[in-house]
Amino acid sequence: MPHSISTEATFTFELLPSDIRESSQIGAQVSLPEDAPILHIDEISEANKDVLRQALFENQVIVIRNQQGIDPTTLPKLAKVFDPAASDIHSAGVKAVSNPKDILSAYKAGRLPRAPQVGIIGSGTFKDYEGIPELDVIHLDHTTFHERPLSQEELDQGYTRPYRWHMDAPLYERYPGEATILHCIKMPKLPDQKLKFPDGKEKTIAAGATAFFSGARAFEMLSDDEKEFALNTTVTYAPQAYEYIRHCKSTEDGLSIPTMGRETALEDLSEWSWDKVAEYPMVWPNPRDATRPHLQFHGCCAYKLTTRNPATGEVAVVDDVAEVRRVCYALQKRIWAAENIYAHRWQEGDLVIFHNKGVMHSITGQLAQYREDEEKKRLLWQCTMGSAEAPKAFRP
Ligand SMILES: [Fe+2]
């Protein structure tokens, strides 16, 4: 049977330049055909969906430029290209998080009336946006979460830090989604900022860049013994994990919590039960490459580790939270090097899709000081819908 035009892929992708990718294993740009430059989900052929899946699962973060005017209902439908069984609910719940006990409420994220699965994040106050009379969104930065934030002098010199590395997941009750989709409406016009790394290197990034590292790259950097440990280990997260850590402070890289003592007592958390506590393997599979394991865990929220020896069936448990954090941090912290970090330099109109179950990401930048300045406000749409199932183990 001859191929009809509609079954042939017209989308193409190419890797971002090697001086941007460095060793991160992250980043590709997808190009749409000239006669259909804005993504219309109902018009994407199966062949083009396959191009998107290949681009994403091989490169973990993909960008489609110049999507100004895209219909917001496209985002949740697009998420299902990567996760057909995704729930039709934002992974933070039907409404944006507003419970003051939950630190995820601090972003004051809104939701688009035209597509309730799409959140609105950014920095600044917006009037009459998308039918919302007044929207006030907060760009959190590391000074509110790090135990030893940058000094005023360093901030004045343009340094910033990753706020907190995470996957988009409430880490309680609902599951993380396979892909998160972001669409840039407005980016502040501000000078670049800089990240500093433990080896003395620095990386220049755009103000308000979203930073990513690959769980596949993080796994590769482990020793053979560490790989074996990670493959056999399950991470149990704290009950109501983001309430549990809401007064905690992090390490300078935003990966871990170095000091015990500020955790919320379990009896002071919102109502919870063990059956809803998140318990995920430490290493997750890549949906398109069975040989590519991703080290995926949230070091700040980890509570207990359970390691099963596959030969003997013997089970070892670490349930001292300080020790759990130490073990997690030891596995993850070497990824924090300039060459392993991809920091997306936003352009207005960008549609960025990232493999939420294959990378960790973080806010960077110090934007809150500019929130009143029209030229320096930031606005993004964000669509992250929970998967129907818990993440599977790379090694079942
Ligand atoms: Fe996020």
UniProtKB/TrEMBL annotation:
Gene3D superfamilies: Clavaminate synthase-like (3.60.130.10)
Record's keyword terms, sorted: Dioxygenase, Iron, Metal-binding, Oxidoreductase
Residues in TauD/TfdA-like domain copies: 26-384
Keyword Kinase in record: no
InterPro entries the record matches: TauD-like_sf, TauD/TfdA-like, TfdA_dioxygenase
Cofactor or coenzyme needed: Fe(2+)
GO molecular function, one term: dioxygenase activity
SUPFAM superfamilies: Clavaminate synthase-like
Family listed: Belongs to the TfdA dioxygenase family.
Protein name: Alpha-ketoglutarate dependent xanthine dioxygenase-3
Organism name: Coleophoma cylindrospora
Taxonomic classification: Eukaryota, Fungi, Dikarya, Ascomycota, Pezizomycotina
